[in-house]
UniProtKB/TrEMBL annotation:
Xaa-Pro dipeptidyl-peptidase C-terminal domain ranges (all copies): 349-583
Protein name, UniProt field: CocE/NonD family hydrolase
Keyword set includes Translocase: no
Keyword Hydrolase recorded: yes
An MF annotation (GO) of this entry: dipeptidyl-peptidase activity
UniProt keyword annotations, A-Z: Hydrolase
Species, as recorded: Mediterraneibacter hominis
Length: 597
């Protein structure tokens, strides 16, 4: 039997990845070893279906062997020329972190016997045409054409996969849903199921997409809105958006919306203009048609307090054509992310050797899901989501900032008051100084594992017709051992609340994001708020905390929730009649063989 060291040498590793299990590594010795040098062909010109010419870089094994290789397509608007810059991998939130080098370890894939194709999309870098932003139908179809073009290269065996993190991954499922004939499998690190909620979580605007026009080297661009609407329709929509007081308090947003024609920050302009869920978002979101994906999927979820990266993989794992093979892994926290992204390269090779080369690497013998359980930092196998053994537990918000599994018995407990102060007037916009209220459990006497989807049920009255809700689930360490750690965040715009009353499962919520229905000031409403997926052990001696505020002023100016521009009083009801609670998925036990060895 081959020694572990020799197996790891085949894939160029000095030590076994934490997410690999000794019990499922019998196929590693069959994988293609690192043996090829890399040949690069730069600025190769190809045509997509409408005749637009794209510039493409091709990386392929430099060999005289009579052998054809599978292809991997890396598609984004970040520009092809930077994807193989020689530099160390840098950590997220460090000063020199570069967000745009996301295609992955291209040279490593080629050394193991793959062709990698990286295009400049239309309107980007050296390619013709006009860029119309991220993930739309035009980009999907162009990527489809690149896949089919790659399959016809004389040194390609016709089996194509896709690589890359974030932008590169978010595009993969919507392209796969178009069913390019030569696309045989996909593997995504950071999957977004719903682009509306990526930019408007629960209807609350987050300016995350402002960065894309800066990150994408577009030489020619036009917004989808300008292509879609007549001049008068477009002007009417712009004026309606500018009438939103939260928008017109921002010089940045007002400035972009005041340009005409809207050729400044064209993608961000589209994001600003479409503040309710609509066809614009459904075109870009796999959540509307997961059943159209017919190729095997490997879904990677990072633990991230912002955006849909913790939601998308679990949605695709549980929806669509369930005859399609799929795997899911949650291997790291987003703050641990390094770019260029290399932590999952061995898993990419193992996945694609199986599906594109027909090598039994053992990867499909594993249970379908493996999760990093935070707090104890151990990997565990699971089979379904939510977990069948979940003990769904209501943690009630109680008077005095208590969070308890016991419901309040007093009907006359006064509401807890949250006073939001407009940061444009007298309020604070400092990261840790936004007005909030917190509810904490007593110090835990034993470890408590929370793994699964989370929903907040908040009974609340506001004194305005609309308001933001931001819910943060935090792990509070013992006194003197650091700040509370934010695990996951949830948002809801009050005017997007659910109006149809129906029975909900513990992980379900009931909101309508296609329109705004003003709130009657002073009226008590129940707001069901999605607080994202997580897996975390709250250790003995820690406390579980729910934090409520209007917005999260995190220190990254391109990832900030838009605060309400008016002062708002929230009356959060915590009495026996109007009970507010967060539904937590408590995991009572795990079998020993589930833990990765």
């Amino acid at each position: 039997m081959m020694e572990m060291k020799d197996k790891l040498d085949i894939v160029g590793l000095e030590k076994k990845p934490a997410y690999w299990d000794n019990r499922y590594m019998d196929g590693i010795e069959k994988m293609t070893p690192r043996k090829y040098e890399v040949k690069k062909e730069e600025d190769v010109i190809m045509e997509v279906r409408d005749g637009t010419r794209l510039a493409v870089d091709i990386y392929r094994p430099d060999t005289e062997e009579e052998v054809k290789f599978p292809g991997l397509v890396a598609f984004s608007a970040y520009g092809k020329s930077i994807q193989t810059l020689e530099r160390t991998s840098m950590q997220f939130k460090t000063v020199l972190f570069d967000h745009t080098i996301e295609a992955g370890d291209i040279y490593e894939y080629v050394r193991h016997g793959y062709i990698v194709v990286v295009p400049d999309p239309r309107g980007i870098g050296k390619s013709e045409g006009a860029w119309d932003g991220l993930y739309g139908r035009q980009e999907q179809e162009d990527c489809y054409d690149v896949i089919e073009w790659t399959a016809q290269l004389p040194y390609c065996n016709g089996n194509i996969g896709m690589i890359g993190i974030s932008y590169f991954s978010i595009l993969q499922p919507v392209v796969a849903a178009l069913q390019p004939p030569h696309l045989k499998a996909i593997m995504m690190v950071e999957v977004v199921d719903n682009m509306y909620h990526h930019n408007y979580p629960g209807g609350v605007f987050v300016n995350r997409s402002f960065m894309y026009t800066d990150f994408c080297p577009d030489v020619n661009s036009m917004s989808t809105a300008e292509r879609t609407y007549t001049t008068e329709e477009l002007k009417t929509r712009i004026q309606k958006r500018l009438a939103d007081p939260d928008i017109n308090h921002s010089a940045l947003y007002s400035g972009i919306l005041s340009c005409f024609p809207p050729r400044n920050q064209t993608y961000f302009f589209d994001i600003l203009l479409h503040d309710d869920d609509s066809d614009f978002w459904r075109e870009r979101s796999i959540q509307s048609h997961p059943e159209d994906i017919k190729v095997p999927m490997y879904l990677i979820s990072e633990y991230y307090e912002l955006g849909r990266f913790s939601q998308g993989p679990f949605f695709l794992f549980t929806h669509g054509d369930m005859s399609v093979p799929r795997k899911l892994a949650a291997p790291e926290e987003h703050d641990a992310l390094h770019l260029p992204h290399r932590i999952m390269t061995p898993e990419y090779l193992r996945w694609y050797d199986y599906w594109l080369k027909g090598i039994d690497t053992g990867i499909m013998d594993e249970p379908p899901m493996k999760l990093l359980v935070r707090g104890i930092n151990k990997f565990r196998y699971e089979k379904e989501w939510p977990l069948a053994r979940t003990n769904w537990t209501k943690y009630y918000l109680r008077d005095g900032g208590l969070l308890s599994t016991e419901k309040e018995k007093d009907e006359h407990v006064p509401p807890t008051i949250l006073q939001h102060k407009s940061p444009y007037k007298d309020g604070s916009n400092e990261t840790y100084a936004v007005p909030n209220v917190v509810f904490r459990t007593p110090v835990l006497t034993e470890d408590v594992e929370v793994t699964g989807p989370i929903v907040m049920h908040l009974k609340c009255a506001i004194d305005k017709t609309d308001a933001n809700f931001t819910i943060m689930l935090n792990d509070v360490p013992p006194e003197g051992e650091g700040r509370p750690l934010n695990l996951v965040t949830g948002n809801l715009r009050a005017s997007h609340r659910g109006l149809e009353k129906k029975e909900l499962k513990p992980w379900e919520f009931n909101n309508d994001h296609t329109r705004k229905v003003p709130v009657t000031p002073g009226e008590i409403n129940e707001y069901t708020i999605e607080v994202m997926n997580t897996s975390n052990v709250f250790k003995k001696g820690h406390r579980i905390e729910v934090e409520i505020k209007n917005y999260d002023a995190n220190p990254y100016h391109w990832m900030v929730q838009l605060p309400n521009s008016e002062d708002i009083e929230y009356q959060i009801h915590v009495d026996a009649v109007h009970d507010s609670y967060i539904y937590l998925p408590i995991i009572p036990y795990s079998d020993e063989e589930q833990w990765i060895q």
